[in-house]
Design a protein that fits this description.
The protein has about 260 residues and is α+β, with helices and mostly antiparallel strands. The protein is about 15% helix and about 35% strand.
């Protein structure tokens, strides 16, 4: 696991570069942190906000200047994505089930573990895919979670094989990340951890549970934000387009090679 670094902070007055992309991810712990979304969106200056473990029937249509773009409907613990309407046009989105663990089959917390969104960024004059992801819990094997991540990347690429993409969420993968990084890089994506652990509820499970994978983006930093009522801390990913306005030439994912 990556060593913790400087504590992440929020500066609402910080300058944001014109082609910068600020993506926040937050696991709401069975929807208990839902009331924090508006203040989190405002304080982080998020362009896109991805949430996990939400109650889709109790989500606000707008939070902190962001509009609810899509959410899962079949889950007890759902996924959702908010975006800035004054910056992004929604081209398409897709919701997917992934390979189930025993925990999934017995308790049925989440049939759908990925929501991916194809956006047109008018500010940067480019397209981008943003996805919210929630892997099976620690009762499942790392091998199963790697298969879920690989399949999720393929679904992301199905929306566009050329646009830059970022997938954030609760990966439930705090240990043995060297092997995970290698597998992710084999499929054309990069793995980015935050500067502080994101899960602090149980001492022996402390680690980086929430992080980002990306392609076609330069990740300038991933901050672990201050804790709220959830057992996860939110993360803020600051990214820049590698080639603004040019969506050609990005690698595609071949899950069958895993």
């Amino acid at each position: 696991m990556a060593a913790p670094q400087q504590h992440g902070t929020l500066d609402p007055d910080a300058d944001v570069q014109p082609t910068a992309l600020r993506v926040v991810s937050y696991n709401l712990r069975e929807h208990t942190a839902n009331g924090e979304l508006a203040s989190l969106a405002e304080a982080s200056q998020a362009d896109v906000l991805c949430v996990q473990e939400c109650d889709s029937n109790d989500l606000a249509q707008s939070v902190g200047g962001l509009t609810l773009a899509a959410s899962t409907k079949a889950n007890r613990l759902g996924l959702a994505i908010y975006k800035r309407d004054d910056r992004f046009d929604l081209q398409d989105f897709s919701i997917h089930s992934l390979q189930k663990s025993l925990h999934d089959r017995v308790l049925a917390p989440a049939h759908e573990r990925l929501i991916a969104m194809h956006l047109r960024d008018r500010e940067a004059d480019t397209e981008v895919i943003v996805a919210s992801f929630h892997a099976s819990p620690l009762t499942a094997t790392n091998s199963l979670r790697r298969k879920q991540i690989e399949a999720a990347h393929q679904f992301v690429r199905d929306l566009s094989s050329e646009a830059p993409a970022i997938m954030v969420g609760d990966f439930n993968y705090p240990w043995f990340q060297t092997n995970l990084r290698r597998k992710i890089e084999e499929h054309g994506f990069a793995l980015s951890l935050s500067d502080q652990p994101t899960y602090l509820r149980y001492r022996k499970f402390t680690g980086h549970f929430d992080f980002a994978t990306s392609v076609g983006l330069h990740i300038a930093g991933v901050e672990t934000l201050p804790a709220g009522v959830s057992d996860h801390r939110p993360i803020l990913v600051r990214a820049h387009y590698e080639h603004p306005g040019d969506t050609a030439g990005y690698p595609t994912v071949d899950v069958s090679a895993a």
